[in-house]
Amino acid sequence: MSMKTFLLPDLGEGLTEAELVKWLVAVGDTVVIDQPIAEVETAKSMVEVPSPYAGTVHELHGTVGEMVLVDTPLFSVLEEGSAAPAAEPQPAAPEREVAQSYREEERAGTQEPASEGSGNVLIGYGTPEGLSAKARKRRPRQSAGTPLAPAARGEAVAPRRAPLVISPLVRKLARELGINIAEVTGSGAGGLVLRSDIEAAAAVRSAPAAPASAPVAPATTPAPAQPAGDIDSRSGLPIASRTPITGVRKTIASAMTRSRSEIPEATVWVDVDVSNLLALRSDMKAKDPKNTPGLLAFIARFVVAGLQKYPELNSRIEQSAEGPAEIVGFEGINLGIAAQTDRGLMVPSIRNAQNLSARGLNAELARLTEVTRAGKASVAELTSGTFTLNNYGVFGVDGSAAIINYPEVAILGVGRIIDKPWVVEGELAVRKLTELTLAFDHRACDGGTAAGFLRFVADAMENPAAVLADL
């Protein structure tokens, strides 16, 4: 017998978990090496997990929608020529190691063991052995006259186990509702405590107790039970849905929160007459419709040229515990392009954009947009940007005070292009205008640098032929 169990690996950037999106095989299917087994969504991208083994799928560990921790079983394969393993008795609570990111969380109902241990937290069995003696809570002394506990009298005591809870969201919900997880019977596989179990326990606790000698009421149709959590206690409104913040949305929320809390940002903006740029592109498209770059590619080329002239905006600030903060500059430019997808806002980056022409940028823009919306962009493509360009004009808005894509120091937004009255050589005319908005980290540069960069890009968009001749 040769059973191989594949553990979910670290899929990049130190990620500790992934959401199981789709199983691509079923138990009993024959698989070959490198055949995709499942699709999982990390905080960065959608990933197909291939099988390193050939044989028959024996077990799929996890259900669709479940968060799977790194280094826990994902699937098991019975290699070719092997017999199915004999059934073994299953433990009451299966042991699985929690990823490092959850090790600091408290375990409800955990009994401290007397011997030293590994310090790893096993789901269902809290093991705080790795804590120092100072970090452990002392047990209260037995006062005189207090009956001895069964263990103190030498009687056998059944070992106490912590509740089987995988999701930190479930533990958080229990704390918020004041529910002791140790007293909740899990309805999931192997006694796993689910969100519904916590909500049911809260509903039972909040139900009013019946009077001891209540009068018998006429038989009526009972009103449907309203489980706890259906009515929001703050607003008094019914709760329509609860959506856990996981995967990409969790990463976006974390980055935006960190940006707002750590970066002292300032914003400058300018209206730009892009009539000449649109006319130039229209002439090029008439002569060569297949090889004419899109408008965003032209703007990207001007942005890259501006960053080469004002490199302070193509940098990152690093804070070291040993010394002062540093502004880290780069030799090249990885231009991030904000893209709205079904999975949230993603920012893939064009690596070494300074080496590409407007046509080259246009081709790379098309490729990155396609792979990102398909969930196939690599971690490197989604995390290596040094400056972000955001075209929110496609949503029909003029401007936006964009949040800087941490840990970058600036982001440039482009609004919609509309007809507006504009003064040209002393005469009022109707022109094509857009608004550029630059949010920048005031630690990396001052307003003069930010304004100089913004003016350079605006001038390039207003007089594109003169600038493109030198690029």
TrEMBL record:
GO cellular-component term (any): cytoplasm
EC number: 2.3.1.-
Biased composition (Low complexity): 209-228
Key word Transferase present: yes
A GO MF term: acetyltransferase activity
InterPro entries: 2-oxoacid_DH_actylTfrase, 2-oxoacid_DH_E2_comp, Biotin_lipoyl, CAT-like_dom_sf, E3-bd_dom_sf, PSBD, Single_hybrid_motif
Any Pfam family: 2-oxoacid_dh
Comp. bias regions, Basic and acidic residues: 94-109
Peripheral subunit-binding (PSBD) domain residues: 165-202
Enzymatic class: transferase
Cofactor(s) required, per the database record: (R)-lipoate
Chain intervals for the UniProt region annotation (Disordered): 82-155, 209-240
CDD domains: lipoyl_domain
Ranges where the Lipoyl-binding domain occurs: 3-78
Keyword line: Acyltransferase, Lipoyl, Transferase
Family: Belongs to the 2-oxoacid dehydrogenase family.
The protein, known as: Dihydrolipoamide acetyltransferase component of pyruvate dehydrogenase complex
Record organism: Paeniglutamicibacter gangotriensis Lz1y
Biological classification of the source: Bacteria, Bacillati, Actinomycetota, Actinomycetes, Micrococcales
